[in-house]
TrEMBL record:
It catalyses: uridine + phosphate = alpha-D-ribose 1-phosphate + uracil; 2'-deoxyuridine + phosphate = 2-deoxy-alpha-D-ribose 1-phosphate + uracil; thymidine + phosphate = 2-deoxy-alpha-D-ribose 1-phosphate + thymine. The keyword Lipid biosynthesis does not apply. This is Pyrimidine-nucleoside phosphorylase. Homodimer. It comes from the Bacteria. Keywords: Glycosyltransferase, Transferase. GO terms for molecular function: pyrimidine-nucleoside phosphorylase activity. The keyword Glycosyltransferase applies. InterPro entries: Glycosyl_Trfase_fam3 (IPR000312), Glycosyl_Trfase_fam3_N_dom (IPR017459), Glycosyl_Trfase_fam3_N_dom_sf (IPR036320), Nuc_phospho_transferase (IPR035902), PYNP-like_C_sf (IPR036566), PYNP_C (IPR013102), Pyrmidine_PPas_bac/euk (IPR018090), Pyrmidine_PPase_CS (IPR017872). The lineage of its organism: Bacteria, Bacillati, Bacillota, Clostridia, Peptostreptococcales.
């Protein structure tokens, strides 16, 4: 078998076999296929696309290019949740203890963030003492005992994906549904979960900007998951404006804690209820979506989810006192209110611009080597559809480096549109994708 023949076959828009895809992924991950030939094949895939079977074969080959985690020693159906990312997306920090409190085991491997704010691991590390490094035995024992553990992905998971993504990034071949879906799912499948819930964001602050593209990506990933014998469900949720009110690592953890105390923002609570209910259905700890929602609500109202969060924090070396004493989090030296420049209804809050503004303050990374300021970020006061008066505080910025303020303020203010006519808020959930097809709401 020759890589030249595989490139020519895809160039001429023919379907690649399982053996051909496995040959490419194996040889490229070992350095036996040069970048110039790999990039030629990736461009042929980008232009001519892959069908469902090819995408599954690619995902499986990438998954098998590194370690595949065995979680069979953990009791019950292990459900993982993956979000395609957005602004203010602190979902795992509230959702994992919620689902664990309802009896479903959460054994999650997460990543760090490159962009608006940190990833789940960065946010968790805002908790003093919290460690995301865990030996395999402790990870498994923690989930069996407490139903919850979150750790960092090992460098040996899906080795081919790291090489291929770096090449796609510099050859303009990132934006292809099959390549995106395979990149996401190979890591999720290698992480050992029995079932996967996908939270596919759509809108201004999301990777996929349009509803059609978001549904297409969700469908591709659901097909991959179910094609590899993992129960997989995809949700399409809004990211046209930031999720909740907090954007920034410590600030988002505090908002997640407040949510478990019953004080969460309406949109974030709604999202946790929706995603949590589907996770319980996948874990078979709820028979129906409606029963799942009731269990999630009960876990908040009874306080069991908050207690589970404390156990989770303490088990991973963190100071559980942060749940009741927010002064233990990293603190910002400067707290600056941002005022509305006119009266009216908020018609738009561009999530991406808010995210970039938070990144400028220090909450995110522009390059992988950037150091996060875990105290930096923004707390919004309003959502789309709210009325504000001129001079009202739209948001509060938290930062430690004053020289970053003006640039961040300019980006933030430009993210807002305020109009005279009342505006209806957007819906939060646009639909669900299962093995049976797409259901739009």
């Amino acid at each position: 078998m020759r890589i030249y023949d595989i490139i020519r076959k895809k160039r001429d828009n023919h379907e690649l076999s399982k053996a051909e895809i496995e040959f490419f992924v194996d040889k490229y991950s070992k350095g036996e296929i040069p970048d110039y030939q790999a990039s030629a094949l990736l461009m042929a895939i980008y232009l001519n696309k892959m069908n469902k079977e090819e995408t599954v074969y690619l995902t499986e080959a990438m998954m098998n290019s590194g370690d595949v985690i065995d979680l069979s020693e953990i009791d019950g159906i292990k459900v993982d949740k993956h979000s395609t990312g957005g602004v203010g997306d602190k979902t795992t920090i509230a959702l994992a203890p919620l689902v664990a409190a309802c009896g479903a085991p959460v054994a999650k491997m997460s990543g760090r963030g490159l962009g608006h704010t940190g990833g789940t691991l960065d946010k968790l590390e805002a908790i003093p003492g919290f460690s995301i490094e865990m030996e395999a035995k402790k990870f498994i024992d923690s989930v069996n005992k407490h139903k919850i553990a979150v750790c960092g992905q090992t460098a040996t998971i899906a080795v081919a994906d790291k090489k291929m993504y770096a090449l796609r990034d510099v050859t303009a071949t990132v934006d292809n549904i099959s390549l995106i879906a395979a990149s996401i799912m190979c890591k999720k499948l290698a992480s050992g979960a029995n079932a996967i819930l996908l939270d596919v964001k759509t809108g201004d602050g999301a990777f996929m900007k349009t509803l059609d593209d978001s549904f297409e990506l969700a469908k591709a990933m659901v097909d991959i998951g179910n094609g590899m014998n993992r129960d997989t469900i995809g949700m399409i949720t809004d990211m046209d404006e930031p999720l909740g009110f907090a954007v920034g690592n410590s600030l988002e953890v505090i908002e997640a804690i407040e949510t478990l105390k019953g004080n969460g923002p309406k949109d974030f609570v709604n999202l946790c209820e929706t995603l949590g209910a589907y996770m319980l259905v996948l874990a078979k700890t709820a028979d129906t979506f409606e029963e799942g929602v009731e269990k999630i609500r009960e876990a908040i109202s009874s306080g069991s989810a908050l207690e589970k969060l404390k156990v989770f924090i303490e088990n991973q070396g963190g100071d559980k006192r942060v749940v009741d004493d927010y002064s233990l989090f990293p603190q910002a030296n400067l707290v600056i209110p941002i005022k509305a420049h006119r009266s009216g209804y908020i018609s738009r809050i561009e999530a991406e611009e808010v995210g970039v503004s938070a990144m400028i303050l220090g909450a995110g990374r522009e390059t992988k080597d950037d150091e996060l300021d875990l105290a930096a970020g923004i707390i919004l006061n309003n959502k789309v559809g709210d009325y504000v008066n001129e001079g009202d505080t739209l948001a509060t910025m938290y930062l430690n480096k004053e020289e970053k303020l003006e640039s961040a303020k300019e980006r933030f203010i430009n993210a807002y549109s305020i109009v005279d006519e009342k505006v209806e808020p957007k819906k939060l959930v646009y639909g669900v994708v299962t093995k049976d097809g797409i259901k739009k709401f």
